[in-house]
Amino acid sequence: MTFVCTECKKEGGILDFGFCKQKHPNAIKKKIGQEGTDSVLFTPTGKTFSFGKIDAENLNDLIVFKATIMQVSDISNYYIEKTYRCTECYEETSKICDEYRDIYDKDTVPVCVHCEQAPMKLDKNKSIIGNIRKVMLQETNDESGINPRRIEAHLTSKNVFDLQAGKDYKFEAKVWTISYGKKDNYNRFILDVTRVRCLDEDTSIMPTANEIEFFRKMDKKLVVESLAPEIIFRNNEKMAGIISFLSGGRVDGIRGDMSCLYVGDPSTGKSQILNALHSLDKHSFKISGRSTSAAGMVMGVDNLPDGTRMATFGPVILAHEHFVCIDEMDKMNENDRSMLHDVMEDEVAHLNKVGINLTMPAQTKIIGAANPKRSRYNMNDTIMRNVNMPNSFLARFGYVFLCRDNFTRDMESQKIDRINYIKENGLDKFIETNGLLSHEMLVKYLNYAKSLTPSFTSGSLSKLKDLYLDLKFQEQDLGSLDIDTRAYHDIIRGAYSFARFDFSDKVDVYHVNMAWNLYNEALKSFNMKTKGEFIDKQLENRTTLSSLEEFSE
Hints:
The protein is α+β, with helices and mostly antiparallel strands. The protein has three domains: 1-43, no CATH class; 48-201, CATH 2.40.50.140; 209-551, 3-Layer(aba) Sandwich (Rossmann fold), CATH 3.40.50. It contains 17 helices and 27 strands. The strands form six sheets. The protein has a five-stranded mixed beta barrel. It has a five-stranded parallel beta sheet with strand order 18-21-24-17-25. A four-stranded antiparallel beta sheet has the order 2-1-3-4, with no helix packed on it. Helix 4 packs across helix 15 (485-501), helix 11 (409-425) crosses helix 12 and helix 15 (485-501) packs across helix 16 (509-524).
């Protein structure tokens, strides 16, 4: 495809206009036959193509595709145009970079092209320099399979700024290749990006007006039971995951995200609840603490074949404003846990390596699961001796639930009956028979709830203060979970999430009650002593949200 610059009166490919893009970008036009031109400043000119299918047949093609930014290098620069001046006659000449952004002449040209008597020296003051940044792109979640493809890309001009790791962008780029090295006959693909546009931030599936009205009237207990419906007798644990999912935002510099942790025996549904939560948000991640390092989980450094150092981002950075499910958190080593510990509190991640100094936002919720050291949880021992986690790290989780394999014979029988029914008839049939929400309707419900921004009513927290102080100074067994100001903030975050869950524009005493009671249920799962129940006459006529007593089948 041919382009023309109406200022310089030259023709060529889109990559031949580096100087023009800096000086007069509006003058770049697409040549249409012999009759006229068409502006290409904002409208993509390349053919739309699937990122994962780029191959040798696309060399030198201008293509349009979607991709996610996974790694970025520091911003560097290159010469768009070099201006040389003769040391004798003082005449000037300019040389523009080629499509590979190279100008092969050194800072001194041996012979002046005008007088042919003296050398020409580079005049840096009149030369034009552009920005360049190397990034690693990956297929978007909606297009990729098990092993998403990655390709290096080069961004120039204003495109190098305002890039957010983990976000999806629409790119227009030319496909070319460069060698892996001097001793290697093989080449690797490079995408030379000409334009970038961030895709719409909110692509969540939202309910219709009729569906919202149905959600408001229905028993909210159905929402909890519809999450991982194959799991029975774990509604408090499911509720904690939902409340964590609905938390978020910062108010007056204080984090609004609340994390959640499930500790306990194997085969108690912890991983299945994590899988169910992960399926609710396509921007979330699920990883294993056993096989993920701190660099792979949060942020690290990688080297490209040409020696360029790139900051590589892990799930905790890529899931900014979303969440990460981490299974087997007890298998993480101390250094990895320490890095995650800092991110969970400050909601930013720092990387200070040679040549790279980055601070990235990480408002990411962590929903984790951990197993006891000796397979079964020992109720006669402390939580720190049972699980390979210090109390300071456990305190970063708003709700910590102990899941024990202690069902009675009747409860175990009901669990097996449910497993058998789903095996014989399918999960969809079970959901339909029991009047539960389908996965799509559950996603719509939670997406709409998360979009709400309720405000606290006057006096809604006054009762909570007295209950918290009673609990704070209640004598507990040595090695119990800490109850401190951080826990108080988490109860408030829980109340905010409960208001969202209830489709309410106000956080009132009812929602604070629900958050307090759920926190008490978490403490009781570890046999910790609790102090007082949140009782208020205003709650007697509230029927939109089932009480936590009803959550326990």
